[in-house]
Amino acid sequence: MDNSQHIILASGSPRRRELLSLLGLPFEVITSEADESTPPDFTPEQIVRSLALRKAEAVVAAAGERNAVIIGSDTIVVLDNTVLGKPVDELDSKSMLTRLQGRNHKVYTGVACIGLPHGKTIVEHRVTSVTMRAMTENEIIAYIATGEPADKAGSYAIQGLGSTLVERIEGCYFNVVGLPLSLLGEMLSEFGITVLNR
Ligand SMILES: Cc1cn([C@H]2C[C@H](O)[C@@H](COP(=O)(O)OP(=O)(O)OP(=O)(O)O)O2)c(=O)[nH]c1=O
């Protein structure tokens, strides 16, 4: 195939935009207002897979009749079977970071690709294990004051100041930031889009 397919990133996340840029393929961003609620009995993988798909589906109409691949993605943090999404306020960030500090948790990211005009759909997810160092209450307060936790699942950003809080990870780093690139590369190849050997 000849990479003639248009790529559409269905995301308002500046992190996902930066990560997708790393692949060196041209793409367009179309954002949507997908409903992000899921049934209470959903497992973490069901949550990220269904929300990734919902985000991609939400821009199908806006994509029109083009020959395109739409990418949707969703990231959550899971600690002791509790799902930590984006914090609603600073108090919520404090409670998340207090729970996460000194412990291991898992970051789940779902990725959905929809190929147009035919609608071929692939949904996958990755899990990365993250160990955070112990933090004092003052450190947590100081970190929240930087503003970084505000729009991040689990209230931290491994790619920012949060890097100083993470002791080790097992699995894909990019999965933690919000878009697992090795997985995405494999998924795009299913649509005839190759990152290498172009
Ligand atoms: C754990 C972690 C999350 N995050 C971010 C990635 C996601 O942007 C965000 C999780 O929220 P999401 O709901 O997955 O995504 P979003 O609302 O930011 O963007 P969109 O739905 O439009 O695609 O948390 C980091 O940037 N760094 C991290 O270390």
Automatic annotation (TrEMBL):
It is found in: Cytoplasm. The keyword Ion transport does not apply. InterPro entries: ITPase-like_fam (IPR029001), Maf-like (IPR003697). The keyword DNA-binding does not apply. It is an enzyme of class 3 (hydrolase). One of its GO terms (biological process) is nucleotide metabolic process. Gene3D superfamilies: 3.90.950.10. Its EC number is 3.6.1.9. It catalyses: dTTP + H2O = dTMP + diphosphate + H(+); UTP + H2O = UMP + diphosphate + H(+). GO terms for cellular component: cytoplasm. Its cofactor is a divalent metal cation. Nucleoside triphosphate pyrophosphatase that hydrolyzes dTTP and UTP. May have a dual role in cell division arrest and in preventing the incorporation of modified nucleotides into cellular nucleic acids. This is dTTP/UTP pyrophosphatase. It comes from Paenibacillus odorifer. The lineage of its organism: Bacteria, Bacillati, Bacillota, Bacilli, Bacillales.
